Amino acid sequence: MKKLLSLAAILAVVPAVSYAQYDNIYGNGGVHTAMYASEAEAVAEGNQIMEQLNAKQSHELVFDLRTPHKKLVHDSVKIYDSEVEVNQVEDTSGNMMYQGFVNVEYRFSRFD
């Protein structure tokens, strides 16, 4: 009897799973670097982070880019474009500091 109930429960769930839909979503986000005294250092750090992001597998990018963790279709995250930008910030003593930002455009799928 237990086996029959288990089989009935599985068969009841199968139609719901087969009708699941996927949404393709475009995201835009990125990663900030530390603060540096020169713009060249901020750009170099940003380039290094950009190379690391481009080398990661899809399932690893989930932890670096903004994606819905619960409904995400794993292995669907793909980077389409990335560039390094630099922001100038004045610190408390009046010195200019530079912070790199890796701007990333990506796409992923999620369950509907």
Descriptive overview:
InterPro entries: UCP028299. Keywords: Signal. This is DUF3316 domain-containing protein. It contains 3 helices and 3 strands, in the order αβααββ. The protein has helices spanning 2-18, 39-55, 58-61, and strands at 22-36, 78-90, 96-111. The protein starts with a helix and ends with a strand. The protein has one domain: Alpha-Beta Plaits, CATH 3.30.70. The mean pLDDT is 79. The chain is 34% helix and 39% strand. A hairpin with a 5-residue loop joins strand 2 and strand 3. The longest helix is centred in the N-terminal third of the chain and has 17 residues, at 2-18.
Can I get a quick summary?
The chain is of the alpha+beta class and about 110 residues long. The chain is about 35% helix and about 40% strand.
Q: Taking all residues together, what is the mean pLDDT?
A: 79
Terminal CA distance: 35 Å
Largest sheet: 3 strands, antiparallel
Q: Tell me the number of strands.
A: 3
Q: Name the overall outline.
A: elongated
Computed CA radius of gyration, to the nearest angstrom: 22 Å
Look up the CATH topology.
Answer: Alpha-Beta Plaits
Indicate how many domains the architecture comprises.
Answer: 1
Helix/strand-derived category reads alpha+beta
Strand order of the largest sheet: 1-3-2
Q: Main attributes?
A:
single chain, 112 residues, alpha+beta, Alpha-Beta Plaits, three-stranded antiparallel sheet, 3 helices, elongated, DUF3316 domain-containing protein
